[in-house]
Amino acid sequence: LPIHGQISEAQFIFLRRVLKQAGAAEAAAVILDIDTPGGALSATEKIDQAILKSGLPVYSYINTNAASAGALIALSTKAIYMAPVSAIGAAAPVMGSGQEMEATMTAKVVSYYSGYFRSVAAQNDHNPELVDAFMNLDKEVKVGDRVLNPKGALLILSAQEAVEVVNDKPILARGIAKTVEDLSEQAGLNTKDIVRIEPSGFESMAQWITILAPMFLMGGMIGAYIEFKSPGFGVAGLLSALCFLLFFAGHYIAGLTGFEVVAIFFLGLLLIVIELILFPGILILAAIGTALMLGALFFAMVDFYPSQPMTFSFDAFAVPVANLSIGLALAVLAAALIARFLPELPVFNRLILAKSAASGPSVPVSFSSSVSKVPALGETGVAVSMLRPAGKAQFGESLVDVVTEGEFLEAGTPIRVVRAGGDAVVVGRG
After folding, report:
1. Which end of the chain has fewer CB atoms < 10 Å from its terminal CB, N or C?
2. CA-to-CA distance for 138 and 127, rounded, in angstroms?
């Protein structure tokens, strides 16, 4: 898979998705085709962690430039191979604008990250001293008795220098390879089954969807709330479906979820629909369905790898817990505001209320026109259809479109007018 151009969060999302797909497919190895001038240190750290977590043998092919962040990514892989004309190194941290950092800040950043990446390099049997040579201007680095990099300079190795053997071990790279196929042969891999994967145009979109996950969760929940409280299927249901579709699609592209989580979500939705239509009032199906849907939304945000068992840790669950909690809190707040104020707004009736039709002696009432038999404040009647919260009610000989203040009322429930006028007849239990 290519690691080309600036290292960014989008590169991390792409790499994580591919690593998980490779793990699920039981790939023999992953080869990173690296050609980068560097990039964000935070994204580099995430990429290194993803490589280490994947459990797959990962190789680096420096083709042709692994500067700065590219060098640190290469050190997180099992083995490094270089194109005949290529270079690796010079990983001193700078500001995002490319300017040098203030001396104290530079010292702090170099001190922390050089320690971190030395640990990464050592885990892959690379010389950890090379990290200091790449990052630290103030440190002389030796390999054996040879001064590899003098104090006051940053190490940059050509392909020929990187494969030089000192004390029976290459300085950094295992070999020089003309192509990925050449690398595969040298590493003892099967060259017939190489699959090249390119990033999709949705990788960047996935980054924003994962960041805005609480907003998509809130939108989906609010749309579902309005839809379940209104007859038929309308705009609210479409908006809810769109929010949940974007949520799952973004997290799938980001490598955080698979289709099995989406299947569990729709199974939960199906159980809720079955209860509402066939067994209203039982609650057990709706409770199980709600638990399945919330569980699917939660685990769609959990970052785990096929080669590793699911581990219950703060790092794994912190972001999903925060996103789901924020989404639920915003949805509950919005639902309370909708139940209180939306029934009084004309747009509410245009979105979810159907026109009433005459039936026998009943007199239809339309909220969009003036009708003489609108029930008076305090007048009692009975719900003819289920009010969710909109529906029909009988007041004397008049069949009237009404709306509750948010609660569901079964057909046959005695009701009383609590507000009348404008575009809505608002009722409560009689």
Report:
1. C
2. 18
